[in-house]
Amino acid sequence: MYKIMIFIDGTWLYRTLPRLAESCGKQEFKVDYGILPKVIARELGEYLGVGALGVDVVRNHLFASLPTNYDPQDAQLITRQEEFYRLLKEDYHYQTEIFAIDFRGRRVRHGDRNPEDTFQPREKCVDIALASQLLFYAALPSAMDIAVVVLGDRDFIPMLNTARRLGKRVAIVSVRSSCAQELAEPHDQAGVKDFGVIWMDDLLDELELRYEPQELECQSPDHQGDRHFWTTYRPRRGEPVYCDACRQAYAERRNGGQQQDAGEDYEDYPPQEGMPGLGETLGGVVDFKKEDKGYGFITTDDGVSFFFHLTDLEGGLAFENLDEGQEVIFEVKALPKGGKAGAAQRVRPPEEAAE
């Protein structure tokens, strides 16, 4: 049994996705990170002549960055990135190392910033973290037999050379249009690999994240009629599932009984003076709870009220065990507007504030 560890340069892979999309004639391409290690194991098993069952994926590592000090308008974007990293860690058991990039109050996407603004975000530590982690495990006698790297930059050549000098085999997974010539070269004059490059370009059908329709069961206590419904949404492991009708009812309750307009988005409204920013973590107490409807309100020390639904709870909090007067922390999902309460998300115990 060959033991392998996978080390992914998440920043490089993210930058490469548009090229993968072009190669398969699509507007976008998303990698199924749950499938990726299995496909790599199978490909290596074929190289080694032992099949997928002869390869044990000991650990998956991903190294990437996350914007900080960004324009509040991008709070929803960053929340999605945080959820993605949390998904990798909690559902797929990746070891993730995420490093902050200071955007100095600017928009995250370059196209959203002033064209005359010459600011360029500077990513720090990602490459160094990947190299140091790989060499640490390479120096351990029995941690792994093969180091698999998902990357394309030539800056990693010294790391790959050193890993092989330490007696470990190296396999490279890359994309043809984003791979340095020294890594891709079949004769391996740079001495960086022990197998032919595993090209993701050749495995797109297997690696693409698809949202195929599936039948799920609505878990809302307010649901009426048959609970089974079809959706392309892929819930996380252990995540409660709710049908569109129940989610719409939740949105109407949040908006004071009025249906939200199709074009209305709370994130489009700038923070009011004295109000917290979107995505900011606050503390408060549960001052009202509607037991039979699955929602309630949190009031902060400043007297600002935030609506939450049972779907916004995490960190082991169960709605039925939540008491009025109980202290919690949460992230601001929507700001108070027009006399209505704001909205909270990621409501969790105060002891998780440092995590």
What secondary-structure arrangement, pairings included, does this model have?
Elements lengths: L1 E8 H14 L12 H13 L6 E14 L6 H16 L4 E8 L23 H14 L6 E5 L6 H9 L3 E6 L6 H4 L13 E2 L4 H4 L6 E4 L10 E4 L12 H11 L26 E10 L4 E6 L4 E5 L17 E8 L7 E7 L7
Parallel strand pairs: 1-2, 1-4, 2-3, 4-5, 5-6, 11-13
Antiparallel strand pairs: 7-8, 9-10, 9-12, 10-11, 12-13
Order of helices and strands: EHHEHEHEHEHEHEEHEEEEE
Just give the CATH class of the largest domain. Alpha Beta
Strand content: 15-25%
The largest sheet is: 6 strands, parallel
Measured between the Cα atoms of the first and last residue, the distance is: 36 Å
CATH 2nd-level architecture of the largest domain: 3-Layer(aba) Sandwich
Task: Please tell me about this protein's structure.
By secondary structure, this protein is α/β, with parallel strands linked by helices. It folds into 3 domains: 2-207, Rossmann fold, CATH 3.40.50.1010; 212-262, no CATH class; 279-355, OB fold (Dihydrolipoamide Acetyltransferase, E2P), CATH 2.40.50.140. The protein has helices at 10-23, 36-48, 75-90, 126-139, 157-165, 181-184, 204-207, 244-254; strands spanning 2-9, 55-68, 95-102, 146-150, 169-174, 198-199, 214-217, 228-231, 281-290, 295-300, 305-309, 327-334, 342-348. A 6-stranded parallel β-sheet has the order 3-2-1-4-5-6. A 5-stranded mixed barrel has the order 9-10-11-13-12. A two-stranded antiparallel ribbon has the order 7-8. Strand 2 (55-68), helix 3 (75-90) and strand 3 form a beta-alpha-beta unit. It is globular, with a radius of gyration of 24 Å. It starts with a strand and ends in a 7-residue tail after the last strand. Residues 258-274 have low confidence and may be disordered.
